[in-house]
Design a protein that fits this description.
alpha+beta, five-stranded antiparallel sheet, three-stranded antiparallel sheet, 8 helices, about 20% strand, globular
């Protein structure tokens, strides 16, 4: 059992980081024009396509084309031989391999371990690097508010004034007292776990008692949660999503480090940082939505074991930047 109180999570403020032929004479009879109908069939891995051309007759008020078969043509003359046509096919990309290669040189030191999950919201392509679970620290606050909003939807009600006040400072300022209050409002770990089942999370378990910061999760699950917050197919209503997105887009400027370092435009983020009293090592996490070179990504980076907070922040930012850069390059290469 970890000895941290919820107030021990995020107790330090991070430093700020800055995202033709002639026309024939008229005839009394309606001439026949043969129109080519092309059926394209993709074979095998798509190295090319084969086009089969069949002549199909139709009547027309216009003159017959100079290329039309003569009236004495036999039925079989209306069929052209098969013609093989090469067509460019988009390359098949192993996105997990792309991400792994992109992160090959990202290291956090001998004691640190990290995991990254990323999704291109336009193409739907995603990848995960690393495995295992991590302490959430304060990124669980997004899960807490998502749970509260889902419960309110189920009850057919709006958030109370007090719930809104707590939600605002919990997300924007990472306030721990507000998080503890809302943790109790949702029913603690049991309420969080029930909502996460509906959110599709598979590797997240709420912390014991008031230790919400010791909720266990994976980068892959945090990506699933981000899809609930930002995706089109979500159990959260559009109003609930917009509300949570708005708060994540207004975090205190001293807390806009992490995944926003990979953005060249707007972003939404929630970070978590926690020094474990048992080891003195740091848990540093960052989740959110970023834009980069015309792409929009959902990115989750979880880590543990950094010797200092600054080293943990640097690790998370380097991983987020490498992940987004590798996806940008692979997407451009696949399209060219």
């Amino acid at each position: 059992m970890a000895s941290e109180t919820p107030e021990s999570a995020d107790r330090a403020e991070p430093r700020r980081r800055r995202g033709g032929g002639r026309r024939s004479p008229a005839s009394k009879a309606r001439p026949v024009i043969f129109t080519a109908v092309v059926t394209t069939v993709l074979l095998g891995t798509g190295l090319g396509t084969t086009a089969y051309v069949k002549a199909q007759s139709r009547t027309s008020g216009g003159a017959a084309s100079a290329t039309s078969p003569s009236p004495s043509a036999t039925p079989t003359q209306g069929y052209a031989r098969a013609v093989a046509v090469k067509a460019p096919v988009r390359a098949v990309v192993d996105w997990d391999k792309v991400l792994s290669k992109g992160l090959a040189e990202v290291e956090g030191g001998s004691s640190a371990r990290y995991s990254v999950a990323i999704l291109d919201t336009t193409s739907g392509e995603s990848a995960v690097y690393g495995s295992g679970t991590f302490d959430t620290a304060s990124i669980v606050k997004v899960d807490i508010l998502s749970t509260l909003l889902l419960q309110a939807q189920d009850a057919g009600r709006h958030l109370t004034a007090q719930e809104k006040a707590n939600a605002k400072i919990m997300i924007e300022n990472s306030d721990n007292t507000a998080a503890s209050a809302l943790w109790n409002d949702i029913g603690g770990a049991s309420g969080l776990n029930a909502a996460n089942k509906r959110f599709g999370l598979k590797e997240t378990t709420g912390g014991s008692g008031l230790l919400w910061g010791l909720t266990q999760t994976s980068a892959a699950d945090q990506l699933r949660l981000l899809k609930v917050v930002f995706g089109k197919d979500s159990v959260l209503s559009a109003a609930s999503q917009s509300y949570l997105q708005g708060l994540m887009g207004q975090v205190n400027t001293s807390q806009d480090w992490g995944v926003p370092s990979a953005s060249t435009g707007d972003f939404e983020v929630k970070n978590g940082w926690l020094q474990r009293t048992t080891t003195g090592l740091w848990d540093i996490n960052s989740i959110g939505r970023v834009t980069s070179d015309g792409h929009t990504y959902l990115v989750a980076v979880t880590s543990k074991g950094s010797t200092t907070m600054n080293r943990g922040v640097a690790l998370v930012e380097e991983a987020a930047q490498a992940a987004v850069k590798s996806f940008n390059k692979a997407s451009d290469d696949a399209s060219s």
